[in-house]
Design goal:
Arc Repressor Mutant, subunit A; 2 strands; 71% helix
């Protein structure tokens, strides 16, 4: 640690930073191979561990892909990579009760915005695909595994109406991080049936292009899911042994 608490950059960070600069400057285009590890070692005057750490850092950023036996290849970062990088931190936050509540609140904020957008902007083909997702969800009500899958697919279809890959990735991340919540909430008596009814109200509001009704239906639905989750969770905690 340097004086005044300023951290000295590690060697691999300097290498990664320079390679990142070259990628953004267009010296290496998507699909191009970076120089071999040996060439990079010679260029930067470092050993193989520093080069490999730098390439690993670039891979985590979504800037390169690394396959055994060939030089790293430049790739385009995607929203999915961003969400993947956040996954570890998200699961750490959700290890606490307050953390779970924060993610539940985040889901409500996101899905309320998404359903308002869907009601305002859904096209005829969006309505048809959403109706199909709802029908599939309805017929799965007695199959817990299938119901969880089709439940998520219905909500994902609403997110897809935004036609924004960042939004899709954000919804996918939240859905993955709250997967346990969905499973536990579904153990509440009558939960699948209530969810299907709520999905029906959400669909009707979107089909009618009624953003206010869509928001109210989604907010009520997610509030129910949260309450069901905590009811089941707390009941488990109160059980002896």
């Amino acid at each position: 640690m340097a004086r005044n608490g300023i951290r000295r950059r590690k060697l691999y960070e300097d290498i990664a930073s320079e390679l990142e600069r070259k990628i953004h400057a267009g010296e290496f285009a998507p699909g191009d191979h970076l120089p071999s590890e040996r060439r990079l070692m010679e260029e930067f005057g470092v050993g193989r561990p520093a080069v490999r750490e730098a390439l690993f850092a670039l891979r985590k950023m979504g800037l390169v892909s690394v396959k055994s036996g060939e030089p790293a290849r430049v790739t385009l970062p995607t929203p999915e990579i961003l969400i993947e990088e956040l996954s570890g931190a998200a699961r750490s936050v959700m290890a606490t009760r307050d953390g779970v509540r924060m993610f539940q609140e985040a889901r409500v904020l996101l899905e309320v915005a998404l359903v308002r957008n869907a009601a305002a902007n859904a096209r005829a083909e969006d309505i048809a695909e959403l109706r199909e997702a709802l029908d599939t969800n309805r017929v799965s009500v007695n199959d817990r595994r299938k119901f969880n899958e089709t439940d998520n697919a219905f909500h994902a279809r609403i997110a897809a109406i935004a036609r924004n890959p960042v939004v899709d990735a954000a919804y996918s991340g939240l859905s993955e991080w709250l997967f346990e919540q969905r499973q536990i909430a579904m153990l509440y008596p009558g939960s699948p049936q209530k969810a299907v009814e709520a999905h029906g109200r959400i669909f009707e509001a979107i089909a009618a292009a009624d953003s206010d009704a869509a928001e109210a239906a989604m907010r009520n639905h997610l509030t129910d899911v949260i309450e069901q989750y905590w009811a089941v969770w707390d009941a488990r905690l109160s059980q002896p042994g």
